[in-house]
Input
Amino acid sequence: MPLMLYLIGAPRAGKTAVFDALTNTPQGPHCFVKGPHRLGTVKVPDARLEALRDLYNPKKYTPAEVTFVDVALPPASAGEGNSFSQLNAFLGDADAFALVIQAFGEMDYQGNTPDPAKQFESLLLELIVADMEKVEKRLDKIDQEFKRGLKGNEAERAVLARCKQQLDEGKALRDLTFEPEDEKRISSFRFLTQRRLLVIANVAEDGLNGAALEPLRQAASAHKLEVLVFCAPLEAEIATLDSEAAAGFLKDYGISEPARVRLVQAAYRLLDLISFFTIGPDEVRAWTIHRGTLAPQAAGKVHSDIERGFIRAETVAWEPLLRLKSHAACREQALLRLEGKQYIVQDGDVIDFRFNA
Ligand SMILES: Nc1nc2c(ncn2[C@@H]2O[C@H](COP(=O)(O)OP(=O)(O)OP(=O)(O)O)[C@@H](O)[C@H]2O)c(=O)[nH]1
Ligand SMILES: [Mg+2]
Output
């Protein structure tokens, strides 16, 4: 499963423009439609993997992927709760949310210019309210069962009460730590405030220096979040150009790298993800794991049989392999390591798993 990153934000904030910047290509948009939502899978750019591909010339080249989702929010209408609670079922499989903030300063239909920091706070609040609704509904149900003499849900009730208190204080469930047993008890609720967040300020062309974003940055950093600055329609346009023309435009606007690259890198950082590589004449491929994953579990990404029958991981870092250009040369220099079950896979490891079939 690729990483799923959902773009959410106020109506007209520029979610679709950001999505276009991520999924447009010179050959056209690279996305598909699911109900009212759009999904686009982006290959994670990785210069190390590209160099390994060039060295091995495999039949197949498979970079890691991130799937972005352009969420179509139903219009919020009085008495129906907040918009995210209506979307709860759909938002369930998100690994993370990117909050798209309208920071291009245009007036909305009510004639107000939206305040980026306020938008950010109100999105956080919406997520909290959506979780609160779930918690309260379940707590009510448990209370009713207690009244009818049905017992057995005390532990669930206790952990939900803890969640309720946290949400009551306006805080995300992400910041609570749970015992593994409690973690299991609440996992099926798929609470929105447990997902990680990043923030995209969608600015006008003349706002790319981010000068006007200090209040948003402060609000975000109070939650330990970073703000990425995009001019989404401009980036969507640039994404349709061939790479030479695109590079020229990016340079003119002083943008370091395309939105797609910056967002994917931020998502990796945010989710504490790393890549390891498997290589051979058939395929050169990247695999995404959480930092701290042990070798057998990393092997399980490739195939569950390899995890089960794991013997060892023949490992070399990407850098010496590219420099010396072969496993044999790395072995001669004692740079090829035989790692066991307790080995923690490092970012950029090139691994050949040995296993009992
Ligand atoms: N001036 C300016 N307009 C923008 C910018 N980004 C988006 N827009 C405009 O704002 C409007 C909304 O942008 P969308 O990308 O459709 O926003 P959205 O969040 O997907 O909107 P909904 O899906 O309708 O909620 C469009 O008319 C865009 O052209 C920007 O950076 N500058
Ligand atoms: Mg849209």
